[in-house]
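Journal club prep — side note

Before the paper discussion, L.F. wants everyone to see what a predicted structure for a comparable chain looks like in token form. Sequence:
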Amino acid sequence: MAAALPDALIAGGLAGFPWLSLIVLLPAAVALAMPLLPGDGSDPRWPRSLALGTLGVDLVLMLVCFSQHFEGSSAELQLVERVSWVPALGLEWSLGADGLSAPLVVLSGLVTLLSVAASWNINRKTRLYFALMLVQASAQGLVFLSQDFLLFFLAWELELVPVYLLIAIWGGQQRQYAATKFILYTATASLLILVSGLALAFYGGPFSFNLSEMASRSPGGVFGLLCYVGFLIGFGVKLPMFPLHTWLPDAHGEANAPVSMLLAGVLLKMGGYALLRFNVQMLPEAHLTLAPALIVLGIVNIVYGALNAFAQDNVKRRIACSSVSHMGFVLVGIGAIDALGMSGAMLQMISHGLIAAAMFFVTGVFYERTKTLSIPNMGGLAKALPITFAFFLASSLASLALPGMSGFVSEITVFLGVTANDGFTIGFRVITIVLAAVGLVLTPVYLLSLCRRVFFGPRIPALAVVGDMNPRELLIGLTLLVPTLVIGFWPRVAIDLYEASTNGLSSQLASVTAITLGRIPALG
């Protein structure tokens, strides 16, 4: 297929500056040079400085690219770069950005940079550690920007390797178990993604891995439903979707804080992004048919994740269960099938990426001082760590959707998206809102009880003399929390980036509503 493309089309992405290729390839290229640094690898200064500088430059490139060369009011694919790579396989180096990918690329760049900055005390195998961080940055950027299915799949698999090694080498006592469970779940799910993608590539026309061409075929019927379910399970593991979520608490519980920031801030968002890109954009008829099931799964995520959080006596495992709950709102928003619901899903991904990264970062701050994450073994830290307590409380309030913070705007938008859709029966909408509200009520209970037990419980004398956050840690915390306030008071700063794309998806679904919407009330 790629060999048949006109030369002008293949080289079209290189006519201007290849912004997206530079953004994707820069971290990986620098990672290759990491073993050449002086020293035995135990001195963190050179590897850390190189990784920080590279990711800082990469983030600046993202901001310049999407502020100066990206038009948020357009739903069309922009900054397209298309070059034939392996013609025999139909593989292209095909990159492009739209409203679904641009904000998540910036989110991933910011969280990854701050994760490296939070890795200040890593002093073992430092060259390998920071090289893996850089490879991870390239892989996750490629996932969001790929416009060729095989390239997307290669990037999807590539990002598993650094995460596995980061958990297995620098994790806690049960790190091998957690890393193995992570790779088994995600690699097995990838088989379903590959099979479903290949099925679409061969369906209804000339073989093609190009995502736009695959989306134009929009298969329906049983074939479309099977592909949809394959993608849903494959991407649902990464989201994470109940009951495919059980790898997440173990991974968070054993990973160090910077890796947990990556897991919660970026990797989970890959699942939500892929559901929008593949399930909604490529299979609209199947999505309309299964939208109520998606909402039901989202409600289960919200309530189950919240209830499960109560049972956790480990701080990071409790926050991990809260992530399961909050990502349920992404499923509900996607299942709402209207522009408002999908807008809420996108905003929830952005919001949760910032908030969860902040919570895991602050957890890492007091773990470095207390050397424990066991809630019963902590108490009275508010007096010893007043600034740390303030940051943890602020991130908890953002997570429980306090008005004025980004979590409130995103979750209320999802609610409005469900209630505004007349395609669902009134009873289905009422039950959905009531059950989701139960999750909203449970969230402040388990988060505020966590704050009370850790910071205001009985004082433990051994923890009375620990030091508070230093200026570097303050800067990282502020960089994560300030955007949640900005988005909370001025959500248009985020919505303007993706609104045209979510409106476009809604219009695409509306074009097939006459055929399939009649099934929704029966299912709902």
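L.F.'s comment for the group: The longest strand covers residues 78-86. Keep this in mind when we get to the figures.
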